[in-house]
Amino acid sequence: MTTILLTGASGLVGSRLLPRLAQAGFDCRALVRADFAPPHGTTAVRGDLLEDPSSLRSAVEGIDAVVHLAALFRTDDQNAVWRANLDGTRNLVNAVKLYAPEARFVMASTGNVYDADATRPALETDPCSPTAAYPASKIAAEQILRESGLDWSILRLPFVYGDGDGHLASLAGLAERFGLHPAHTYSVVHQRDIATVMGLALAGHMDGHIVNVTDDAPVSVYEMTLIAGVPIPGSAEPLDNPWSGRMDGALVRELGFRPTVPTIHAAARDGLL
Question: Is the pTM of the predicted complex or chain greater than 0.90?
Fold first, then answer.
């Protein structure tokens, strides 16, 4: 049985991925800093990516793979974002290199790393020069992993939704906060298909690759808020940077990914929101 260490197990993605990995037959350890009731078939292990890197030894010894989801995003404390996303990743990579050097390391990154003024959906080979702390720290963390000498893969995730995670319902507020145009379209993926692509990555199909993860159809902010039941007003104003938030998904499909939830409209139809 493959033994996996998952970071970020209590987060929006991790809390839904962890039980699915266990159901798929993986022996799952969840790295936690505090009391945590792990799902059936999984084990909580204490460790701290930032404050106690030495605690990571017992977490990684004997593992076959790491799924690194832990990240800090929506906060104005830029130093905290950099510490969590860059230093935390560096400490985890170092622990794996020392105590589980044969382990496969799968890291979740973000489609936010791509430049906003793109002229088409972003490709994995496009240069990335983000200035905001979250995407900039993720690009720096990606580089640490790529230079580590480990078997690695990096999954750049889009807007993730589904399984009652509340992410869609929050979009109306995010649209107001960040001034999102209702006609702006984003790449998206359902929580179920985080597990789909992660299974491929853990089997080695993504080794040495950065991949964009997307379903089959981008969707507008207006449509997403309408589906969530909290629609925002429409607009006929010109749309700046129309490709921002859109990723090309050709590579991940070449490597075997097929979304089980092809579109957000299919998810709504089938009661999977």
Answer: yes
pLDDT digits (tens, 9 = 90+) for 157-181: 999 999 999 999 999 999 999 999 9
Determine contact, residues 206/155, Cβ cutoff 8 Å: yes
Q: Which two tokens stand for residue 73?
A: 């995003």
Which residues, 6 or more positions from 15, have their beta carbon under 8 angstroms from its beta carbon? 9
The CA distance from 84 to 45, in Å, is: 19
pLDDT per position as a tens digit, 8-19? 999 999 999 999
Q: 68-100 as b/e, with b when 16 or more CB fall inside 10 Å?
A: bbbbbbeeeeeeebbbbbbbbbbbbbebbeebb
Question: How many CB atoms neighbour CB 204 within 10 A?
Answer: 12
The total of other beta-carbon atoms located within 10 Å of residue 232's CB is 18
Could you give the maximum distance between any two Cα atoms of the chain, in Å? 57
| Collapsed DSSP state (helix, strand, coil) of residue 4 | strand
Q: Phi and psi at residue 236, in whole multiples of 5°?
A: -105, 10
d(CA 223, CA 182): 8
